[in-house]
Amino acid sequence: MLKYVSNVEGAPAAIGPYSQAVIADNLMFLSGQIPINPTTGKIDSDDIAIQAKQVLQNIFAVLSDQGFSFKNVVKATIFLTDLSNFQIVNEIYESFLAGVKPARSTVQVAALPRGAKIEIEMIAVKV
Q: Which residue of 29, 55, 93, 119 is most buried, as measured by CB atoms within 10 A?
C-alpha cells in the first residue's frame, strides 16, 4: 500500500506534480527538498549555510509529520551546484543528523530549481 504525503505543515509545498514523500510499507521516500522557506514560499538567502539549514529543516518537517526522524534515514543524496561548498554543507548535515550516518552520495549539478544551490533527497525506514 502506498501513501502519498503532501501539504506537510512546516515544509514548503511541492513546486510540481509530485508528493513531498511517498510511504511504501515501512519505507519513506522523500522528494528532493530545496531551501524554500515554507512561510514565504521563497529562497531567503544565497548563502549556502543558510540554504543547507533550510533544506534540512524542511526534510525534518516531512519526516516528523509521518513519525520518522533522521535516525530512520538510510540513504541521502545531496545535489550541489558547486562542490567547493561540500565542507560547509557536510558540517551542517552532520549537526542535523547528530551521529546518524546513512549511506550518502554528493554530486555537483549544473543547476537546481529556483536557483537553489543545494537539494537533498532521503530514504528512511521504520524497523
A: 55
